Amino acid sequence: MFGDRLRLARKRAGLSLRDLAERIGHDVSAQAISKYESGKMFPSSSVLVALGKALDVSLDFLMSNEVVALAGVEFRKHSGTSAAERAHAEAVVIEELERHLALDAILELDSEKNALPKERALVGSFDEVEALADGLRKRWELGNDPIPSMTDLLEDKGLKIIAVDIPKRFSGLTGDVQRPGGKPNVPIIVVSTQFTIERRRFTLAHELAHRIIGEARGDLKLEKAMDRFAAAFLIPRKHLLNEVTGARDALPPYNEIVRLKHLYGVAAAAILLRLKDVGVLSEATVSYAFQTYARAWRTAEPMPLDPKGPYGKLEQPTRFERSVYWALADRLISLPRAAELLRRPVSQVELAVRGPSLGN
């Protein structure tokens, strides 16, 4: 476990064995580091601290044992992403997961319990994809209304939602956390905080689709199926048709597109594509829109959702933070440990618990 973490941290930093040895300052050789990584040797406490500082990772990351590996994970990334960038993203995710799972252990929570289907579906048409999205909404008793928070919904269903500062080149990932001692895997979805609220909500729905759909058959492309599921899940057909009653294959007014995107919490381009999906707009009309007034929407979102607005506030993962404060209130963890888990100064955590003192 330690050796794997050390190797991951070194790759994250883009260092060779020799580079790391030189960064530490010749107190340890490249050969010794190689033996640490292979599990043939274990460093002394002073060398362990030096390794953490040289690699800019916490000792918790190097020594924690809640996460063995990320299983079945595929970063959807641009082809130009380097191995060091992938290692960095993986290290950031694992470090975040270690904190979440450590808290679950303290609270004796059933980390692997979730409401996902046991088997992933095989789909061969967009109609089948739409039916899956509608079926999951029905199973989860969501009705047809817009979803206020994809983050809260998925956390309530037992998935670990990790929002971390990883490059936009990584649009998201879904997978399982492998744990030691034969513990069941834990499902996770990771999104980058560098994206707009619209993009993060759609990414969460897209990654959820990867938990629901296993394969596509025939001419249906798998990633297209995932996008269609995400659109159908976030923008139910019946609800959208009720919102645009009377529309007849004409480009919607700009203010109507903005109204719909703020209603469903998605990008303006997603609204146009969904109107095509449900038969309100033709493919030719949507294609013309993207060649004209909607051309810039691929790169610059019109009237973006406010990060401090309703959707922005609701898409911030809060379950972990709330659980830390409850664990502290129940005296299951100490104030310094709570501050460590939250990565905040002790004084700030204490203020959140006790409130401002009288006279302030």
How are the elements arranged and paired?
Elements: H1 2-13, H2 17-24, H3 30-38, H4 45-55, H5 59-63, E1 69-71, H6 83-107, E2 121-123, H7 126-139, H8 150-156, E3 160-164, E4 173-178, E5 186-192, H9 197-212, E6 213-216, H10 222-234, H11 237-243, H12 254-264, H13 268-277, H14 283-291, H15 310-314, H16 319-329, H17 335-342, H18 346-354
Parallel strand pairs: 2-6, 3-5
Antiparallel strand pairs: 1-4, 4-5
Helix pairs in contact: 1-3, 1-6, 2-3, 6-16, 7-10, 9-10, 12-13, 13-14, 16-17, 17-18
CATH class categorisation of the domain at 1-63:
Mainly Alpha
Broad structural category: alpha/beta
Q: What would CATH call the homologous superfamily of the domain at 1-63?
A: lambda repressor-like DNA-binding domains
Main β-sheet, spatial strand arrangement: 1-4-5-3
Distance between the termini: 48 Å
Number of helical regions? 18
Count the beta strands: 6
Instruction: Work out the radius of gyration.
Output: 23 Å
Strand content: 5-15%
**Poorly predicted tracts of residues:** none
Largest sheet data: 4 strands, mixed
The global form is globular
Q: What is the level-2 CATH architecture name of the domain at 1-63?
A: Orthogonal Bundle
